[in-house]
Design brief:
It contains 15 helices and six strands. By secondary structure, the protein is of the alpha/beta class. Strands 1, 2, 3, 4, 5 and 6 form a six-stranded mixed beta sheet that branches. α4 links the parallel β5 and β6. α5 packs antiparallel against α8 and α8 packs antiparallel against α9. The chain is globular and about 80 Å long.
């Protein structure tokens, strides 16, 4: 273990590899940023500014750090990586400032709705575009509307009806017919009770995932001219009214960062952080058996090593529009031929 720690600690930082192998102008400047919580046993002093995002698997772990890869969307390369004590303005600024010094031509950033990241971004870059991850944003809407329970119940009822009608003859069996009628009535009552809430939620989904400005504006017109003027006044539940109004008012404040991709389609800006989410899942599989890194330095070195390994490793399972990346490493795609580098660990080791 000591030999491993010494080897990882002797690797060059991610930024240095970028300086040595990549011309920053080869990047298109479309960035995806999303942090990953990592357990660390060494005590880390936190302030009110600090926020540590925990996955469901890590909720019970109090102490840890955050790995923040700054991923270039079109090359899938990671020109900079920050191991910070949390998702705070200081650590985000450290990453963006480093990219600026590298000469990275930043045009847009896609991230979840993190005000600390937004503050750091616009402090370092004044004229950059920002796109909120619509997947994260929709999850926030689900939580505020408390609608997932209703939708799960409906699916459960539908599954019970399908099981009763396994051979298509449920209505011919007296017992099955009574149960089916009772389940259908229960489903209809729930649909009537949650009709406006579900209608609003479905429209928000269609608007957030709209494929064109025209489609987005059509859904907005429906909400403002039909839903709120005709259907919404009939809503009897004050609770539902408060939920819907709260979500829509917040949406109006956030929409300038929700449709950046639609309004700048020539830049091919991603609308979600799925690129980083997928890699974060791979990192989770790597460190799942680790209950916590012993020290902050070990945590930083291990994260840096995993990022470097990814940058030198050839892609094998890219799909759809990124299928052409298969057979090349992120560093090769970014413009440098790394085929001569057979041992990336030896190449990445500090001299002397």
């Amino acid at each position: 273990m000591q030999i491993l720690n010494e080897t990882l600690g002797n690797l060059k930082p991610c930024r240095q590899i970028t300086e040595e192998l990549v011309d920053p102008k080869s990047y298109l400047g479309i960035l995806v940023v999303d942090g990953k919580f990592v357990p660390c046993k060494e005590e880390i002093k936190k302030t009110k500014e600090d926020f540590v995002p925990r996955s469901k698997k890590r909720r019970k772990i109090n102490n840890g750090m955050v790995w923040i890869p700054f991923t270039d969307y079109h090359t899938h390369d990671i020109p900079e990586f920050v191991a910070g004590k949390s998702e705070n303005i200081t650590d985000f600024r450290r990453g963006f400032r480093s990219l600026k010094l590298l000469g990275y031509p930043l045009k847009s950033v896609t991230s979840d709705k993190n005000q600390r990241l937004v503050g750091a971004l616009f402090t370092e870059y004044k004229d950059v575009l920002l796109q909120y991850c619509i997947k994260h944003y929709l999850s926030e809407i689900q939580r505020k509307l408390s609608i997932l329970g209703f939708r799960r119940t409906i699916k459960s009822i539908e599954k019970k009806i399908e099981d009763l009608n396994y051979d298509g003859c449920a209505l011919q069996r007296r017992g099955s017919r009574k149960k089916t009628i009772r389940l259908v009535n229960q489903c209809l009552r729930l649909c009537y009770q949650y009709e406006n809430l579900n209608d609003f939620y479905e429209t928000m989904i269609e608007m957030l995932y709209a494929k064109s400005i025209k489609q987005r504006d059509s859904k907005r017109r429906y909400l403002e001219k039909t839903f709120f003027k005709k259907h919404f006044p009939l809503e009897k539940s004050k609770t539902y009214r408060k939920r819907i109004l709260k979500v829509y008012n917040q949406f109006r404040e956030d929409e300038k960062y929700l449709f950046t991709s639609l309004e700048n389609q020539d830049l091919d800006i991603p609308r979600t952080t799925n690129l980083n989410e997928g890699y974060n899942n791979q990192l989770e599989n790597r460190i799942f058996s680790i209950r916590g890194f012993e020290t902050i330095k070990t945590c930083e070195d291990y994260g840096n090593a995993l990022i470097l390994k990814r940058r030198f490793k050839k892609f094998t399972d890219c799909k759809k529009k990124f299928k052409h990346l298969n057979g090349k490493s992120p560093l090769e795609i970014a413009g440098d031929s790394t085929c001569k580098i057979k041992d990336w660990i030896r190449f990445s080791s500090k001299k002397g």
